[in-house]
Specification:
CATH superfamily: MFS general substrate transporter like domains
Number of helices: 17
Low-confidence stretches: 1-6, 228-244, 466-494
CATH topology: Growth Hormone, Chain: A
Shape: globular
Largest sheet: 3 strands, antiparallel
Strand content: under 5%
Structural class: mainly alpha
Mean pLDDT: 80
Strand order of the largest sheet: 1-2-3
Distance between the termini: 17 Å
Radius of gyration: 23 Å
Order of helices and strands: HHHHHHHHEHHHHHHHHEEH
Number of strands: 3
Helix content: over 70%
CATH architecture: Up-down Bundle
């Protein structure tokens, strides 16, 4: 039998770099999707608030369905197209779909600019569905590769941190470019965005596609994926364990029978509801609630949030090591609660400079909170999968399914109830103020309770079994060896 392909204990810097940029195209497009979709379709295309919300819901539902499908099929794929690798094949398919569809999502309707709104709605919906399918292919397979690159907990946290650092950097880039474009291409109304600003979104979309394509080339050239079929890799993993114990083989049904699977899924979903609701409605909050601010703050405010999030991501590995996942997660949620408190009281401040400073402070706190909670939720899910990479894409697919569906329903509902009209200025101000304070704050409190429910749970650590010589029944190996011993006897998969 051929020697078992092994993972290095420490992932090389080259591999980390290549892996970290493998989601940049998705990150850039998602930043525009959540931050400016409602702004673009409501204020540029002139859809109603409800229509704009329905487009986002269609995209989220398509994404949710696609993630489940991709999760199943990616795990079942053997060596991929032309032995390119099962994860990289699906990732490449997703990249192609995103590159071909995303430019049409933030562009005026080609050939139907002056058609009825329902015709334009169908036009945008088709490209949004293709875009979301491609986005899901790239996201799920990229996440699933973490556990296949290394089994070391510290290295998985590092990969998650580098991945999230690139995510934050991509968002910073988008907001920086948006602030430049909004500032350079000034319209007569410096506090609002109008149909005359359509070219700004077109330019930003082309920049996203160009930068994303370069990063995808780096990823596909820099990452080497095992070409062994999934079943053979798993079989070799089982053979390489000692005769006294073995790792339980997990199926998707096995994961569904674990209580912590649902707890981790809810934490994943809640952290993304906080992130996406604030990301979607922060620009509208600035335009309609703090209407006296220059429209450039539509880009500056989230830019400050993501810069602080990027800085917070660097020490995350050390913080996780010293405080643990759960304590770190709760600290992040406390930062989020502090930001929602400030968003509520900014409205009552009078001097413009005091409003600007408080807004920046609130965004910085929000950035630290969302960065911390997202990295921790990724790491908790990675712990849940552990060495059972045979179903890694399925687990990430279900997590993503839950968060996409929850976000789509939440945002569409908010838009359906939106009272903002030309003659309802006061109602509009209060509405976005409530949305940006009560929803993230309430969800953060629920998430804290969910993390506490996992406090004594050994996530993903109860799947090793040992056969004792005097008894034939299987008992958990965790009662016989410590974590370091498990790591030493567990093999690596390339």
């Amino acid at each position: 039998m051929e020697p078992i392909p092994s993972q290095p204990d420490v992932v090389s810097k080259r591999t980390k770099l290549a892996y970290s940029v493998g989601h940049v195209l998705n990150d850039l497009s998602a930043s525009m999707w959540f931050s400016y979709l409602l702004v673009f379709y409501h204020r540029i295309v002139m859809f109603s608030n409800a229509f704009a919300g329905y487009l986002l819901l269609i995209g989220q539902v398509a994404d949710a369905i696609a993630t489940t499908f991709v999760g199943f099929e990616s795990d079942r794929t053997r060596t991929g197209l032309f032995k390119y690798g099962r994860r990289k094949t699906w990732h490449l398919m997703g990249v192609i779909c995103v590159l071909l569809s995303f430019p049409f999502c933030f562009n005026l309707c080609v050939g139907c600019r002056y058609s009825d709104l329902w015709a334009q709605f169908i036009y945008y919906a088709m490209f949004i569905i293709i875009f979301q399918f491609g986005w899901s292919c790239s996201q799920i397979t990229h996440l699933a590769m973490i556990n296949e690159l290394t089994h070391k907990e510290g290295e998985r946290v590092a990969l998650n941190s580098y991945r999230y650092a690139c995510t934050v950097s991509a968002n910073i880039f988008i907001y920086a470019m948006a602030s430049v474009l909004l500032g350079v291409h000034s319209s007569d109304d410096k506090t609002d965005i109008t149909p005359g600003d359509a070219h700004i979104f077109q330019t930003l979309t082309l920049i996203v596609v160009g930068i994303g394509l370069i990063c995808m080339i780096i990823f596909h050239l820099g990452i080497k994926e095992s070409i062994l079929p999934a079943e053979e890799t798993e079989y070799r993993l089982q053979l390489s364990l000692t005769s006294s114990g073995k790792l339980k083989r997990m199926t998707w049904k096995s994961f569904l029978r674990e209580k912590e699977f649902y707890q981790c899924a809810l934490i994943w979903m809640f952290t993304r509801v906080i992130l996406n609701v604030t990301q979607v409605f922060l620009p509208l909050y600035i335009i309609d609630t703090i209407s006296k601010l220059n429209r450039i703050y539509v880009a500056i405010a989230p830019l400050c949030s993501y810069i602080s999030g990027l800085l917070a991501s660097f020490p995350m590995r050390a913080i996780n090591k010293h405080l643990g996942r759960k304590v770190t997660m709760i600290l992040g949620l406390i930062f989020t609660l502090a930001s929602t408190f400030l968003f509520w009281f900014i409205f009552e401040l009078k001097p413009i400079m005091r409003v600007e400073i408080t807004l920046i402070i609130a965004c910085v706190l929000l950035g630290i909170g969302t960065s911390t909670t997202n990295i921790c939720s990724f790491s908790l899910t990675s712990d849940l999968i552990g060495l059972n990479t045979e179903c890694g894409a399925f687990v990430y697919g279900i997590m993503s399914f839950a968060d996409k569906l929850a976000n789509g329903i939440a945002i569409a509902t908010i838009q359906q109830l939106n009272p903002c009209t030309a003659d309802a200025t006061t109602q509009c101000e209060l509405y976005y103020r409530q949305i940006l304070s009560f929803i993230p704050g309430g969800v953060a409190i629920i998430t804290i309770l969910m993390v506490i429910s996992l406090w004594k749970t050994n996530i993903g650590g109860n799947r090793h079994e040992i056969i004792t010589p005097e008894r034939t029944r299987l008992v958990p190996i965790e009662n016989h060896v410590n974590d370091s011993e498990c790591d030493e006897q567990a093999p690596m998969i390339a």
